[in-house]
Amino acid sequence: MKTSRLSQLAIPIGVVAIVIMLVVPMPAQLLDILIAVNIAFAVLVVLVAMYVHRALDFSSFPSLLLIATLLRLALNISATRLVLTNGFAGDVISAFGHFVIGGSLVIGLVIFAILLVVQFVVITSGAARVAEVGARFTLDAMPGKQMAIDADLNSGLIDEKTARRRRAEIAAEADFYGSMDGASKFVKGDAIAAIIIVIINLIGGIAIGVLSHGLAVTDALNTYALLSVGDGLVSQIPALLLSVATGLVVTRSSEADSLGAVVARQFGSQRRAVRIAGVAALLLCVVPSLPKLPFLLVGGTLLALSTRLPRSDADRADSPDGAEAQTTADGAAQADPEELLRLELVVDPLELILSPDLVSLVDGPGADLLDRVKALRRTLATDLGVVMPPVRTRDSVTLPSSTYAININGVELARGTAPVGRLLAIGDGLEGLPGTPDREPVFGLAGRWIPVEMGSQAELLGATVVDPSSLIITHLSETVRQHASRLLGREEVAAATRSLARTHPVVVEDLTPALLSLGEIQRVLHSLLDEGVSIRDLVRIYEALSLAAKSGTDPDRLVEAARATLAPAITARLATDGRLDVLTIEPQLQQRLLESVRGTDIGAQLVIEAGMAEMLIADISTKFRDLAALGHSPVLVCAAGIRLPLRRLVQLSVPGLPVLSYTELSASSVTVNALGMIDVVSNLVP
C-alpha cells in the first residue's frame, strides 16, 4: 500500500520540481545529477519501447514524453543560467564539450550541427509523420473494427465480456495514437528550442565574457562555445533517444514478441538473403584501393552465420533431398483453400443482411440495432421457449439501397425497406405529407416514409410513427416467430433435454430413449411452434408425451396430448382481457368434416371436394379478415377430431388464424365471445 502511494505521488512531485527548476537557480553538482538522470531515463524509455509487444503496452508514453520534454527544457534553462552567470555549468557539460570539440572549435560546432540536423530533419519529422498517419488510420478503422466485434458477438464467437474488452482496447488505441500525434509535436518543438538555446548561449556568453568579464573575443568564444556545445549535447542526446523511442512505438505492429525477437526471427528465416549479402561483401574485396580486411571479416561472418540459420522453403525446394518435403508443403498449402471452402459451406442459422447504406444502423452514431437484437433474443426465449441463435449481421452490395433481408438457414424468408434518416408513418390520411408511399412489412398496413422532422406532424394526424431500427426488429421478430421450428434442430432439442435432465431427471428418463427418440420429440415441438405455442414448459410437455406415447407414437396424437396439457396457457395467450373472440363451425358441417378425416403419410387430412375446400377456406378467410379489420383477434374453434386436419387445410391461406378444439377451450377459464359461424354446405367425399 505504501509503495503504491509513493508511485502515485512520484509523477506529481517530479512535475512540481521541474517547474521550480525553471525559476530557482540550481547548484552545478545537482545539475550534474539531474543530467545523468535525464540520460538514463531516455535510455530506459528506448529499451522499453523495444521490448513492448504492441503500442498499447506502453500507453503512458505520450505523457512521459511530455514530462521528459519539460525536464530537458528546465535543464537547459538552469544550465544557461549557470553558463551566463558563472561561466561554468558543471562537470558533465564541460566534459561533453571537451570531448566533442577536442582541439578544434569548428569541428565541434559542425558535429553538433549534424546531430541537430539528424534529429530535426530525419528522426523527429519522421516520427511526427508516422504518428499523424497512425492516428488517422486508427480513427478511420474504428467503425469497421466495432462492427467486426458486434458481428462476432452476435454470431456467438465471443461473449459479452470479451466484446467489452475489445471495444475498450479499440478506444484506448484511438486515444493513444491521438495522444502520440500531439506529443510528437512537443518533440519537434524541443529540437527547435535546443537550436535557439545553443545560439543564445553562444552569443550571450561571448557578449558577457567580453563586456562584463573583460575577456578577449577568442577566449570568450572558446569558453562559451565549449559550454554551449556541451549543454546542447547533454540535452540533445536524450532528445534523440526519445525521438527514436517515439518512432519505435508508433511503428510497432501487434507482434507476440519484442522487437529484437521479431527482427531476429524474420532475418533468420531468410538464409539465402544473408548468404548473398556475405558474398557481396567478399566481392568488394576485389575493388581496387578498398581495404580487404574489413570486408573479409564482414563477408566471412555473414557466410558463417548463414550456415547456422534454418533452411527456408525456397532452399528446400532447390535441394534434391527436399522434393518430397516440398510436395508435402504444397499439399498443406493447398489444404488451406479447401478448409476455407468448407467454411464457406457452413450455413448460418439466422442472418440479417443490410444494404451498405444501412450499415449506419449498426455502427453509426446512436446506433442501437444490435442492442435491440440482443433484447429480442431474450424476449423470444421467454415467449416461445426457444433460444434464438446469434444473428449474423452483415452488409451486401447486391441488395438495393435501403433494403434489408432476413435469412433462416441460408434461405431468404423476408425482405423490406428502411431508409436511414426517415420515419415510417402508418395510418390513413397521410397523403398531404411529403414522402414515399410504402407498406408496413409485418401486417401490410399502408404507410409513408417521411422526413424525421415531420414525425410530430404525422402523430398529430393519428399516425403511428416508427424508425428504421424498430421496423427491422419488428419484422425480424415476426419472421422468427413464424419460422421458429426451423431454428430448433436436433442439437437444440438434445441440449434442452440435457438441461431438463439436470432438474427433472425422472421426467426425461421416462420419455427418452425409452418411449420416444429425440427425432420424434423434435417433430412434436416443431408442430407446437408452427402454431405459435410456447414450448417453454418442457416439463409438462414431456410428462404429457410420456403418458401418450405408452398408447402409441402417432405424431398427431402426441401433438394433441401436448396441446391438451398446455391448453390454459394457449387460450390465455390468445385472449384479450380474459375474453376470447371465436368463430365456430355449423354442427352439420362439422359432423361431415369429422367423417372426411383420413390418415395419410403426412398426418390426418380432410379429404373433401376441391370446390368445397375452396368455399370453406374462402368463408373462413373472409370472416377472419372482416373481424380483424374491426379490431378483433378471432380464433377458430372446432371438434378435437378435426382441429389438426382443419388447421392444415387453412394454414397457407389464413396463416395467422389459430385453431382450437372444444377440449382445449373447456380447460381454460377465459370468457368466450362468439362472433360468427362457418356454415358452408356442400357434398363431401364419403
Mind explaining what this structure looks like?
The protein is of the alpha/beta class. It has five domains: 2-252, no CATH class; 269-318, no CATH class; 350-483, FHIPEP family, domain 1 (Glutaredoxin); 488-569, Orthogonal Bundle (Helicase, Ruva Protein, domain 3); 575-686, 3-Layer(aba) Sandwich (Rossmann fold), CATH 3.40.50. The chain contains 25 helices and 14 strands. The chain has helices at 2-23, 28-51, 61-86, 91-101, 105-154, 160-211, 217-250, 259-268, 271-283, 292-308, 313-318, 323-345, 360-363, 369-384, 455-460, 468-482, 490-503, 505-511, 518-530, 538-549, 555-574, 587-595, 610-629, 640-650, 662-666; strands at 350-354, 392-395, 403-408, 411-417, 422-426, 436-439, 446-451, 464-466, 579-585, 597-600, 603-606, 635-638, 659-661, 671-678. Helix 5 packs parallel to helix 7 and helix 17 crosses helix 18 (505-511).
Helix content: 55-70%
Task: Quickly count the helices.
Answer: 25
Strand order of the largest sheet: 2-1-3-4
Number of strands: 14
Which sheet architecture does the biggest sheet show?
4 strands, mixed
Distance between the termini: 92 Å
Overall shape: elongated
Structurally, how many domains make up the residues?
5
What fraction of residues sit in β-strands?
Answer: 5-15%
pLDDT average, as an integer? Answer: 81
In terms of topology, how is this protein built?
Elements: H1 2-23, H2 28-51, H3 61-86, H4 91-101, H5 105-154, H6 160-211, H7 217-250, H8 259-268, H9 271-283, H10 292-308, H11 313-318, H12 323-345, E1 350-354, H13 360-363, H14 369-384, E2 392-395, E3 403-408, E4 411-417, E5 422-426, E6 436-439, E7 446-451, H15 455-460, E8 464-466, H16 468-482, H17 490-503, H18 505-511, H19 518-530, H20 538-549, H21 555-574, E9 579-585, H22 587-595, E10 597-600, E11 603-606, H23 610-629, E12 635-638, H24 640-650, E13 659-661, H25 662-666, E14 671-678
Parallel strand pairs: 1-2, 9-12, 9-14, 12-13
Antiparallel strand pairs: 1-3, 3-4, 5-7, 5-8, 6-7, 10-11
